[in-house]
Amino acid sequence: MLQIGDEVVYFSAVFLLVVLATRSATAASLLTAVLYVFMVMFRFPPVPADQAGRVLRPRAPSGGVPVVAHRGGSHDAPENTLAAIREASRNGATGVELDLSFTADGVPVLMHDETVDRTTNGSGPVNKLQIVQLRRLDAAAHHRLKVKFSGEKVPTLQEAVEECIRHQLTIFFDVKGQPDKAASVLHEIYKKFPALYNSSVVSSLEPKVIYKMRQTDPNVVTALTHRPWRLSRFSDGTSRTLSTSGQLWTGVLDVLLDWAHHHILWKLCGVSAILVQKDFISLDYVQYWAERGVEVVGWTVNTAVEKDYYQNQLKIGYITDSLLEDCDPQY
Ligand SMILES: *[C@@H]1O[C@H](CO)[C@@H](O)[C@H](O)[C@H]1NC(C)=O
Ligand SMILES: *[C@@H]1O[C@H](CO)[C@@H](O)[C@H](O)[C@H]1NC(C)=O
């Protein structure tokens, strides 16, 4: 979709700022022109709207909004396991969100943290373990339902994809870093399972991951994940730094990052959706993105009251830790 209005506003703002800073209309014109050409040359057009729609608005069995199980539904089953995927399907999820990671020998697997300590009976960084070592671990070791799910393994990316396709679940691949490796591995898996083009989306907090993904395979549906105040505050809202100057500085960076997400980065990457921390989503916010052809998905929506609000007021999809009951958020 073309937003002439948006672009006139951004580039006028840039022009004015440069004029104020340099007091030279020539410099301002030149810089604005360079920026404009850069955007036009380096941005990726979004995938066609009907393809994005198949991924982001799958037909929910109940006719409701899309419901995506966070890490496969970390409250209902051990996170990022095949059991979680099956459980999410059985409980009516339309999709699952899964975390991509790599073993020491380069095998793509599902793991959220950098280490295996929190979720398995092993210890140490995932990228220091060989796949055979990782496979010996119990992925249900610390889960509240570990008895029910005992013996669950850490799955490879391919096993997880096959399980999702079997259950007709949408996949939200969450990628934390390693843009080059992640993009090439995901590209391979899309080639191997072309159905994924119609049933999965690659998301990341890092625009460079998404940009690299679109560069490697422009047919992949992508999303930027956004948590306002990410640089200055932890997920639970407490400050990352105690010093006043530190807070001020990271706060300023957060404002700039927020602006960049909403005005530049989404367009440069050509994303089809934006995944936003639930407390920052309103009807106006959803409308803002709808006008730009971008879907909003909220996370992590864990109470019946909130789910009702998404279903009946916002009418947008959400990511949740449980399909069954209210629970505390997993960050
Ligand atoms: C973890 O649990 C599995 C399954 O019970 C067991 O085979 C393995 O030896 C355990 N590994 C460690 C490091 O305790
Ligand atoms: C995606 O779905 C459309 C419409 O059903 C279909 O024409 C297309 O071939 C599908 N693409 C892939 C890669 O399966």
From TrEMBL:
Listed GO biological process terms: ethanolamine metabolic process; N-acylethanolamine metabolic process; phospholipid metabolic process
Gene3D superfamilies in the cross-refs: Phosphatidylinositol (PI) phosphodiesterase (3.20.20.190)
GO cellular component term, pick one: plasma membrane
GP-PDE domain span: 65-331
Pfam family, one: GDPD
Entry-linked InterPro entries: GP_PDE_dom, PLC-like_Pdiesterase_TIM-brl
GO molecular-function terms, A-Z: glycerophosphodiester phosphodiesterase activity
Highest taxon, organism lineage: Eukaryota
Keywords, alphabetical: Membrane, Transmembrane, Transmembrane helix
Transmembrane segments: 12-38
Record-linked PANTHER family: GLYCEROPHOSPHODIESTER PHOSPHODIESTERASE 1
Family per record: Belongs to the glycerophosphoryl diester phosphodiesterase family.
Protein name per its UniProtKB record: Glycerophosphodiester phosphodiesterase 1
Organism: Seriola dumerili (Greater amberjack)
